[in-house]
Amino acid sequence: MSKNVLIITGDAVEALEVFYPYYRCVEEGIDCTIASPVKKKLQTVVHDFLPEMDTFTEKWAYKIDSHAAVEDVNPADYDGLIIPGGRAPEYIRMDKKVQEIAAHFLSEDKPVGVICHGQLVLTPIREHVKGRELTAYSACQPEVEAAGATYINELIHVDKNIVSGHAWPELPLFMREFFKILGVTEGVKA
After folding, report:
1. pLDDT tier for residue 190 given thresholds of 50, 70 and 90
2. Does the structure show a pLDDT above 90 at 134?
3. CA nearest 4: which of 61, 50, 73?
4. Residue 43: how many CB atoms within 10 A of its CB?
5. Percent of the chain residues past pLDDT 70, beyond the cut
6. Strand partners, 181
7. What is the pLDDT of residues 13-38, one digit of tens each?
8. Which entry of 47, 67, 104, 117 is annotated as an active-site residue?
9. What is the maximal distance between C-alpha atoms in the chain?
10. End-to-end Cα separation, the chain, in angstroms
11. What InterPro entries does the entry give (predicted)?
12. pTM above 0.90, yes or no
C-alpha cells in the first residue's frame, strides 16, 4: 500500500531540507506533496558557515514547485508530515491552516519529521508539543522550551511519532528514522 507524505514549507526554505526529503520519498515510491501558503515556485536558500562569522550566511538556491496551497490540503489524506527548516518556518507558522495541519498529525499520532528551524511551526500549537522532547537548531532552543517541550541537545531525537533533527547534515539519519515510524522499509517500495 502506497504512503502519502506532506511537506509544508514556503519561500526561504533550506534547499537541502526540502529537496532531500522530497526525493527520498519519491525514490521509495511514496506519494509526496509539497504545500505552501500559496501554490507557486518556491525560492529555496542555502545556509552555511564561514569561519569569520558567528552565525550562518544565506544565499539563494534552486527553485522548487509547491504542488498545493495549504488551504487546499486535507491532512487526513496523508500518512506523514515533514517540516523543513530555513527561514520559511518563521512566517508559515503564523498561518492558521498550517497550524491546523500540524495539529492534526500530532493529535492523530501520525509520523512528523521536523528539522533545523522547522520546529518553529510547532511552537504556536503548544498544547500539542507540551511535555514532548525535541531537538532543533540550537538557536531555536528558547522557542522549543517556551512551547512547553523539552529541548534535547542531540543531532537526531525520536519521541514517539516525532523525529526531530538539528540541521541538514543529519538528513540521512533523519529520513531513516522518519521512514521507520512511517512504516517504510528503505529500498522496498511501499
Report:
1. very low
2. yes
3. 73
4. 16
5. 97
6. none
7. 999 999 999 999 999 999 999 999 99
8. 117
9. 50
10. 6
11. C56_PfpI-like, Class_I_gatase-like, DJ-1/PfpI
12. yes
